[in-house]
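Please, structure for the following, as tokens.
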Amino acid sequence: MIHMECAVPVRASRGVTWRVLEGRVRDPERHLARVQACEVEPRGEDELLRRVQFDDGTEVTERVVLVPESEILFQFLEHPKFEGEIRHVLFEAEGSLWLSFLFRGHTRAGDELSREELDQVREGFARAVRLVAAEAERMERAGHAALEPT
């Protein structure tokens, strides 16, 4: 079993942070350099099926469930290395907004990760949550700047 979690404080509103997260779900090519193509198929108001193709030829199919302004669940339906899920969770702690990325799963049978590969996954995971927080903070500042009188 692999369990990874990384949480960071976010100096932006819940609404702005949610818009960043939702944008990455619905249009990942705009936000993630390695994504070459993405097909999104709505499956109801807050659920979709997503097929993502990366620049190295890897393809991932996932069921995505959105709990507005709270959580996004990605369940791997087809992934070349992993079975499991990723959760992006917005939560309050000590009066501040936090964003957590959580991976819970395991490698497919016969496909073990080396310590170095596991460290790369962990570092990529931590980098991703920090990038989302930074993007939300930039959007928040830009929004406030747009509202200031000139």
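DSSP finds three helices and seven strands in the chain. The chain has a mean pLDDT of 90.
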